[in-house]
Amino acid sequence: MTRRASTVPELSIVIPTFNERDNVSELIARLEQALGGIAWEAIFVDDDSPDQTAQVLRSLAQRDPRVRCMRRLRRRGLSSACIEGMLASSATYVAVMDADLQHDPALLLSMLTTLRRGQAELVIGSRYVTGGEVGDWQEQRLAISKLATRLAGLVTHQPIADPMSGYFMLRRERFEQLAPRLSSMGFKILLDIVATAKPPLKTLELPLVFGKRHAGESKLTTNVAWEFALLLADKLVGRWVPVRFLSFAFVGALGVAVHFFVLTALLKGLGVAFLAAQAIATGTAIVYNYTLNNVLTYVDRPRRGSRWFTGLLSFAAICSVGAIANVGVASFMFERASAWQVAALAGILVGAVWNFAVSNVYTWRR
Ligand SMILES: Nc1nc2c(ncn2[C@@H]2O[C@H](COP(=O)(O)OP(=O)(O)OP(=O)(O)O)[C@@H](O)[C@H]2O)c(=O)[nH]1
Ligand SMILES: [Mg+2]
Hints:
By secondary structure, the chain is α/β, with parallel strands linked by helices.
């Protein structure tokens, strides 16, 4: 059976959602208004929002086949949601926009025209070009955004005024070429795309006046800053060393400090015997490392509820084996006349690699 060409969408608009139930119906109405005459579809990617956004979308989709909803379970992540939504598209062009109506749908038409004319491969709704505005942000948020934009310049390969924008459109084929190499970490999918594209995508920025959130709450948390740091690190050094390992090693180094703090307090402060103090300090450091890795290194898939406790048990078991490997390697080297510092460092490195590699697969398996 052949389908009429007009029913095949030319444009897929990918909209990540988390607790946006009171925005989606209004957004669809505004898309309809802005895109008359264009064959479009809206692909919502919902991370199982507790406010039942997906259910609202299902009922909207039953009335309008242009609306689709992908529901992801036990996952969070704006970038990965956008990537999966774009990969579900077969249209010529894909756009990404927020669900909360801060991105004016009227801009979609100019973006599409720019791409159709071949004036660019990527069009960005930019808050930082003439005519664009950030809206009523507080001074602090503006300052942070500007700093992040400057840091982002380290990885973009070309000057882009607003690489942190969440509103853009590109040819789907170009996106599909890049998709396997994306970091897919964190909140900044556009930056990920721009930093991955080599040679750079021919890019045009159109002024965007960033509106007010229509309903619901912001999902911007302090995690966003950490995830941004991970994304930058991945783009800068990810080719040589996995950024998760860097984070794991960073947490481990803090864990050593915690260990010595507890040990000293017990030994010197409370007069506890060395063996008992060392055991308590080790236990504390394991719990500390686990907790921090769970929220930092595995920010995209933390263990919660009862899985938090079972995860701790597996992490502790893995670290115990890591400690045996550490001591084994260190004593092997020490006996073969290595300096004690070198032997100790080699032991620590082997233990850390073991702990990371095994807990990455077992404790925080996908
Ligand atoms: N699927 C999915 N969507 C998300 C996630 N976090 C945020 N979103 C969506 O991403 C879009 C942008 O999030 P916002 O909280 O509006 O972020 P923002 O626009 O930078 O911040 P505000 O100006 O405070 O609104 C919204 O449509 C959110 O619902 C997530 O973990 N998963
Ligand atoms: Mg928003």
